[in-house]
Amino acid sequence: MSVTVRVPMNIALVKYWGKRDEKLILPLNDSISLTVDELCAETSVELVKQDDHTVSINGKEVDLESNKRYRTVFNEALRFQRKRAHEKENGTSNNNIGLKFKVTSTTNFPVAAGLASSAAGFAAISMAIQILIGLDETQANKVARIGSGSACRSMFGGLVQWKSGIKDDGTDCFAIKVNEGWNTLRCLIFVFDGEEKKVGSTEGMRRSSQTSDLLKYRIEHLVDKRIAKIAEAYEKRDFDEFAKVIMSDSNQFHAICLDTSPPIRYLSDASWKLIEVVEKFNENGKRKAAYTFDAGPNACVILEDQNVQDFLRFATSQIVVPIDDLNKISTSITQTEQPIAVAKKLIYSSMGSPPTQL
Amino acid sequence: MSVTVRVPMNIALVKYWGKRDEKLILPLNDSISLTVDELCAETSVELVKQDDHTVSINGKEVDLESNKRYRTVFNEALRFQRKRAHEKENGTSNNNIGLKFKVTSTTNFPVAAGLASSAAGFAAISMAIQILIGLDETQANKVARIGSGSACRSMFGGLVQWKSGIKDDGTDCFAIKVNEGWNTLRCLIFVFDGEEKKVGSTEGMRRSSQTSDLLKYRIEHLVDKRIAKIAEAYEKRDFDEFAKVIMSDSNQFHAICLDTSPPIRYLSDASWKLIEVVEKFNENGKRKAAYTFDAGPNACVILEDQNVQDFLRFATSQIVVPIDDLNKISTSITQTEQPIAVAKKLIYSSMGSPPTQL
Predict the structure, then answer these.
(1) Do B258 and A263 touch (CB under 8 A)?
(2) Residue of chain A minimizing CA distance to B218
(3) What does DSSP assign to residue B339?
(4) Which of A121, A195, A288, A356 is packed most tightly, with the most Cβ within 10 A?
(5) Which domains does chain A have, with CATH numbers?
(6) Strand A174-179 versus strand B26-27 pairing type
(7) Which helix (H) or strand (E) covers residue B264, if one does?
(8) Total H helices, total E strands in chain B
(9) What is the pLDDT of residues B226-275, one digit of tens each?
(10) CA distance, residue A293 to nearest chain B CA (Å)
């Protein structure tokens, strides 16, 4: 039997930064996110007779010795299965003994875009395995998380909160759906060149946890309030407040990176131009667009569908985007003025869709 | 009678950001600084019969209507004088009635360098007035402060702490000398181009005070500890610890700017290159150099004299500096490798000298 799923990536609106357990990937704080529908992993998993598990991504075989997390994921999934078999059948045999996972995945992420493709990838593997061997939701969520922390947020549609939990074994650490989809939400992802050599997020989180006093304060006093504000603004469809918290939290996350020793920089000149463009677009009235940046220079601009054309017209007067990408969203916009920054790619997407079985 | 003084600029090692009173320029937190000997204002003040106060800087008359702080400074100085005359002479007349201040100042700051020339300028005016009309130290310190907040830190040599105080009238807000000069300390100031339109520090401080949760935490819980650490490391001549706190505090100040809504950016690409150079220079052993950035892209690198040549050799392999500036410090260094950033000017200075009467 082969199970095929499609799982979207997700973008955090209140960010996760820092682990309380690196092995189990337990975060220091809760985070909250939306899926980005257009960027996804399509993944098939089957259990087959072969010497070892195999993973192929976009037609290329993954070396499981240098990418250890796949094996961790497979082992945990099989452990859950054995546990269940043991409970149900009072210790009798497991009918999958000797079978190995064969994973075939394709993604539509732009190559080296610095977008969180691993989150969608591990969420897709976990969901396919969940269906294939019959894990419950909590088990599948854990399998996704130990593959790539934020993958657990891609297991649901709508607004999703990843609870950090406090238990050492991580049994109270999982993602839950907080709210249904907000149908008019869209995002525009501006893919910029990475100008700096990136500090990987695992290394960056470790460094911030060890050296940033502001991170400790953020985790203890600010994150939960912000998540509550996001959930409330989302519930009320109050875009102005929603945007305010999203931008503040993106900025605070990058502030924490700067408060780290040695300091970490993810925002490039182009990122800052995009920030200026959004701040300018929001002047004089209610906020109509919100930027958010993960551990890289690329911007995700969140806005309601009714404001997409206006924003694009305004943004492309200062940031040049590939004309083919632009024409997919609008054919009436011409990029004429002197650009102050250039994006390699522009992606347009709805937000909040759940993963699906194909 | 004319009084002439020379007053150096100062650079904060633990930064001041945010005012508790904008009119009296009372800061939200203490700060601690060293003077930069080579950059200074040379200022003569006399009391003369003329229609109004006059200020000339580098041969150019200042418009006192659009630069209101000069008048504030003069009025406060004269108020102190009248108060003293009143106390001493039991209400008899003031022999300076009708006389006005004539200020003539020259500075050696590179034009538009974004260095804190106003701090040295107002400190110089205040010190000259102090001698001219006989103010006490606390009075002169206040006069300097209401001209330009950090000017009060240029009124002494050595390590100087500006106490924020808590009183509404600011009578407990003044700078004090914490320690004598550390004779081997030097600084190298890399003047970079300002790539961004700068948010002025008055506006920036206001915005951060109103919107940054991290600033509140910094002020309440971190600043005093850092000042104590700086004072202790300075006392012990423990450069490694001294450098650690200086760099952390510079980074935290810029993190606060980023945690502001809308976010404020003072560090340019070139600033970040300099940060990388210093972090790299400090790898594998005790720290031998420390960067600090005020509200602009220019770097002040603090180090001991014995490490100046090594650092310069290392830094100029990646950051090009004007050859004339370099030759003043070393004639044995050639800038050969591919530069990753370019400085417009390099200034070399001792640190910690007091202002002097000429």
Answers:
(1) no
(2) A214
(3) P
(4) A121
(5) 2-182 (3.30.230.10), 185-350 (3.30.70.890)
(6) unpaired
(7) none
(8) 10, 16
(9) 999 999 999 999 999 999 999 999 999 999 999 999 999 999 999 999 99
(10) 13
